[in-house]
Amino acid sequence: MTDTITPVLLCGGSGTRLWPLSRKSYPKQFAALTGPETLFQASARRLAGPGFAAPLVITAEGFRFIVTEQLTAAGIDPGAVLIEPAARNTAPAVLAAALHVAAGDPGALLLVAPSDHVIPDAEAFRAAVAAGIPAARAGRLVTFGIRPDRAETGYGWLELTAPPADADIAPRDLVRFVEKPDATRAAAMLQEGRFLWNAGIFLFTAATIIAAYEEHAPDLLAPVRAAVEGAKADLGFLRLDPVMWEGVPDISVDYAVMERAANLSVVPFAGRWSDLGGWEAVWQEAGPDAQGNVTSGPATAIDCAGSLLRSEAEGLRLVGIGLRDIVAVAMPDAVLVAHRDEAQKVKEAVAALRAEGAGQADAFPVDHRPWGWFESIALGARFQVKRIVVKPGAALSLQSHHHRAEHWIVVEGTARVTIGEEVQLVAENQSVYIPLGALHRLENPGKLPLTLIEVQTGAYLGEDDIVRYEDVYARK
Q1: Tell me: the pLDDT tens digits for 56-76?
Q2: How far apart are CA 384 and CA 201, in angstroms?
Q3: Which of helix, strand or coil describes residue 54?
Q4: What is the DSSP letter of 63?
Q5: In what helix (H) or strand (E) does residue 131 lie, and over which residues does it extend?
Q6: 400: alpha, beta or left? (left if phi > 0; alpha if psi -120 to 50)
Q7: What's residue 212's pLDDT?
Q8: Residue 97 located in a structural domain
Q9: In a domain? residue 363
Q10: Are residues 403 and 331 in the same domain?
């Protein structure tokens, strides 16, 4: 028996508290919010190297290729990638991972972690994880508590029997979980010193957590086990059985198991940590300058204080003048302006946009696909202009459209284009026309990304006007 740990990265969330940067179709874990790497890449790298096996990732259908692409870009080989047929919160996801690993080694150590947290001192965190291994081997469910530096009301807390010493990372028994407190209670807990923030990160053996489900959440076992046993391999992914998954309750692992279990231990962690649960947290983690400002992208602050100015739109310059404690985030299709004290109400804004039928509520302006990505540049009643980027060696499906014709103008690279029975190479500054209803395919045969401008014309321009005949990515 070794102490090699299998990281379990939870990567199916679709949080909206960082809208408009984070949306249902492309949530915050895939964005580079605080550095050159995305939160997901940083999470995977933090749990890689000596003592760690390849990560097991649990994600949604729409994110599967993003996951593998970002891991490859980070130089990390993924282990199993489990695809959830539908979002069912963390309890079913954790159990599915444990059952999958237990089939090969019930004594395997699992470290379950969200993939959208910020922990700058990776070495210190790995030391805290190592300190928890003996307790996990002894049959404990180990969680990690963050030493608080403020009376935070946005986190759940963990109560210990006594305040931990400053450098102490020895596991200790958990008294109880504390729900997100009001400001008065949070201040009192901070003063007492024996309360930690709940990071939502857990270490245990596969057998221990399965036994905990058997005792505290038996209704989850049968459908999740059936979904795992009925999983089917698909292009390197493992799809959980959708019929069995349909009957799985929607519940968090905290509510289903952790708050009911008696065998919990807590490892205190004194390093910096954030779940980046809102723009206020991004402002804090980004390191404000002497005036309290944070700028990102083409953004300029003039006579501003305590403000976050972030432009994510290429060629769109964001300028703030005389702002005080303001969050301003510019995307190609949406702009958020809020007082920092009110930034948590972003979820209300997203709900309002959904009620209005605004696509910006959930759809990201850049649409990521397994072959690359595209974005809409202009849209009219009977036309749409897109920029399309195809990765080297990648190919779109062999397809046709009922309602639109297309013009493709290659601006970078060389395209291999199939139209009916004809196959041709289209170089830079050349174009090709695809008539309505024609069978066609676009490929990048080169070693560099292929960029083209697509002009669509027709009565209907929706993405669902695609009839696929062949697809190397097995999309329906």
Answers
A1: 999 998 898 899 999 999 999
A2: 45
A3: coil
A4: G
A5: helix 122-137
A6: beta
A7: 97
A8: yes
A9: no
A10: no
Instruction: Give the bridge partners for 391, in sequence order.
Output: none
How many domains would you assign to the chain? 3
Is residue 264 domain-shared with residue 283, that is, in the same domain? no
Last residue of a domain, one of 269, 297, 320: 269
Name the token pair of 31.
Answer: 């964005």
Average pLDDT, the chain: 93
- For residues 28 and 149, membership in a common domain is answered with yes
Regarding whether 319 and 391 lie in a shared domain, the answer is no
- Burial class of residue 209 in the structure, from the number of CB atoms within 10 Å of its CB (0-12 exposed, 13-18 middle, 19+ buried): buried
Could you tell me the sign of the dihedral formed by the alpha carbons of 211, 205, 107, 70, in that order?
positive
User: Could you tell me the residue range of the domain that residue 327 belongs to?
Assistant: 279-355
For the question of whether the overall pTM of this predicted structure is more than 0.85, the answer is yes
Q: Which residues pair with 399 in a beta bridge?
A: 440, 468
**Please, which pLDDT band fits residue 15 given cuts at 50, 70 and 90?**
confident
- The pLDDT of residue 476 is above 70: no
Cα separation, 288 vs 325, whole angstroms: 12
The rounded distance, in Å, linking the Cα atoms of 406 and 333 is 23
Q: Are strands 264-269 and 299-302 parallel, antiparallel or unpaired?
A: unpaired
Residue 361 within a domain: no
Task: Give Cα 463 distance to the centre of its chain.
Answer: 23
